[in-house]
Design goal:
By secondary structure, the chain is α/β, with parallel strands linked by helices. Helix content is about 25%, strand content about 20%. It has 10 helices and 17 strands. Helix 5 (about 110-120) packs parallel to helix 6 (about 160-170), helix 7 packs parallel to helix 8 (about 250-260) and helix 9 (about 315-330) crosses helix 10 (about 345-365). It is globular, with a radius of gyration of 23 Å.
Length: about 450
Amino acid sequence: MIKRITLLALAIGLSFAAAAQEENSFVHEQSDGYQWPTDPAVLEKLDQWQDLKFGVLMHWGLYSVPGIVESWNICNEDWIVRPKGTTYEGYKQWYWGLSKEFNPVDFNPEQWARVFKDAGMKYMIFTTKHHDGFCLFDSRYTDFSIAKAGPFKDNPRADAAKYVFDAFRAEDFMIGAYFSKPDWHCEWFWNPYYATPRRGINYKIDMHPDWWQNYVTFTQNQLRELTGGRYGKLDILWLDGGWITGEQVGLNEVLVDARRVSPGLISVDRTIQGPNENYQTPERSIPDRQITHPWESCITLGNDWGWTPRRNYKSARRVIDILSEIVAKGGCFVLGVGPTPEGIIEKEAEVILQEIGEWLGRCGQAIYGTRITEKYNCGNTWFTISKDGKTGYAVYALPDGENLPAELHWCGNLPKGGKVTILNNGKKVKATVKDGKVTLKLPRGLKQEPIALKFGL
């Protein structure tokens, strides 16, 4: 076990800072509009992605060492609460110093891929660089990376992103790379000549155009490292930090070359409405209505995106309920799960994920490869249809602490001939259909879990 908390961390009470930040943390809103891509290969890839429905987003980095909220404590904004008795500059230098402690001696991306595959997940997004600028890939353009800065640099797997992507490709996942456009460690973003401001650059571009051009070149170079083939073909480039647009850092030029290596690469320039936001990403939330263009809710399994000691994981039942609602509204669901600082998925999370995967193994027909239907909700019941429109599905979302009702009732999405299959146990039952309403008596002995139904239309 590596030391998770340094003497300084103990002195300043990092758990307090993390708890305060959970209440105030910055959340990306959904962009106001959507522009369909025109590249046929991107449209085809989006259709394939929409079939997958369930993925994982992995935050892992310096913040994992003490188990605090990722990056944000070094940003100088009034909503951020750092422990009392600390100076901003002292805290920032302590945070940068975590690069000397990050030593994931049990790094096991094969275990990650197995756990998430068993959970029924079909695509992955791995954080190659968060806002703090620390790279989980071996960049030629900075020494601030897992491959160069700390004790793990001598490990044969020091270029961590390569081995993560390879492990998930071996399990047939769609591969996504998270990348932060802002980089608070880079001198051309937060220049040391000026004080650190809020999340944006700390100088005026018209006064220092050369600094900004240096940053654009730096960012393009790193994006080209990730997308140029050294890390294999990618399916998704997931760009965070919406206060800087992809266009500002030359994303258009990067994508031209990247799509030669990875045809159809999905670009997700988060919250930046336009041709490079190929799907929308409401964060920690679910839209209140059905949406017909591609979108994805990103929601954490616990309190935070990365690993923290105060995890408070959602139950498997809760995750399934969230998934069912998102899919019925036309979206995909990427679940945030953070590996430990040692480099594994901890057992507590694995048990929950296994329960989700076991349910999807029996009931996944109602989720994977489905599309939206006009009547998509009735109380706790969410509806989808097969892509050919011939088969209907219903999922009764069972909230935590509640038991299954004796009967299910809904309007619309009428089962042909009243014949319904309960996917949970494979048994066929008869529903009563009268005056456009359906009544289904649930058989006794069903497990207390969300119920998935299949029926002809």
